[in-house]
Amino acid sequence: MSALEWLNDQFSFFGIPVYWSDFLGNILALATVWLALRRSLVAWPVQILGSVLLLIASLNVHLGGNAARQVVIIASASWGWATWRRSRQQEGTINVRWASWRERAVLIAVMAVGTFAFAAVLKANDASFYPGAPWWMVLADAWIFVGSILAMYTQARRYVEFWFVWLAVDLVGVPLAIHSELYFSGIVYGIFFVMVLIGIRDWASRSKGQEIASPLEPAVVVEGRTDATTTTTGS
């Protein structure tokens, strides 16, 4: 049996049929969120590996939007990794901040336009669920894709809003995963929900005392203070 065949095999997880690719990919996804909470550079390579496994799982159940999402996440994670490394070199740590109102407006506009546009592409090519799938299902699949891209971008930019975007993705991801019989993904999305709430509180607290930087510049810590509690271990 090849590695790909094994990853597409199912096993019983407390009576629930789970694909190995779905299981292992989501274990790494959970690790990614925990590492992001700690602002560790290791979060990015772990995310890349987890996305490769989830790409295999999505293709196995014909989720075109979710599969495309994993491809973009892999590419975006490489950029995010480089961004965080540069931030640590320049600032000595990974500082976080709230986005400006202008930045938030842009994110919301991209969220709305991007979701409908990508849903139209999926619908036209019957690339989501099954031919003739209802619009609400295709829109949900498209939002998982677009929302994940925005989450990756806001994470790389170190915006506190990163966690709110993931929260919106999770609210759609749980029923979508269960409907697609990716049951373990549904369970993990539920765990993500709790971790995201913790992340919002942690990053919001860390953002206090930091000035709003321009979109093209790293965040600035006022009064010469830096966060000496970083647990970054990546290279």
Walkthrough of the structure:
- This is Nicotinamide mononucleotide transporter family protein.
- Its main location: membrane.
- The chain has 235 residues and is mostly helical.
- It is 68% helix and 5% strand.
- It has helices at residues 3-7, 20-37, 43-60, 64-91, 101-124, 135-156, 161-179, 183-207; strands at residues 10-13, 16-19, 210-211, 220-221.
- The longest helix has 28 residues, at 64-91.
- It starts with a helix and ends in a 14-residue tail after the last strand.
- Mean pLDDT is 80; it is low at 211-235.
Give Rg in angstroms: 18 Å
**Number of domain modules:** 1
**What overall geometry do the principal axes of the alpha carbons give?**
globular
N-C termini distance: 35 Å
How large a portion of the residues is in β-strands, by DSSP E? 5-15%
Helix fraction, binned, reads: 55-70%
Instruction: Report the biggest beta sheet as strand number plus sense, adding barrel if it closes.
Output: 2 strands, antiparallel
Mean pLDDT over the residues: 80
Which helices and strands appear, and what pairs or packs with what?
Blueprint: H1 3-7, E1 10-13, E2 16-19, H2 20-37, H3 43-60, H4 64-91, H5 101-124, H6 135-156, H7 161-179, H8 183-207, E3 210-211, E4 220-221
Antiparallel strand pairs: 1-2, 3-4
Helix pairs in contact: 2-3, 2-8, 3-4, 4-6, 5-6, 6-7, 7-8
Membrane topology: Multi-pass membrane protein
Transmembrane segments: 12-35, 42-61, 67-84, 105-122, 134-153, 160-177, 183-200
Keywords: Cell membrane, Membrane, Transmembrane, Transmembrane helix, Transport
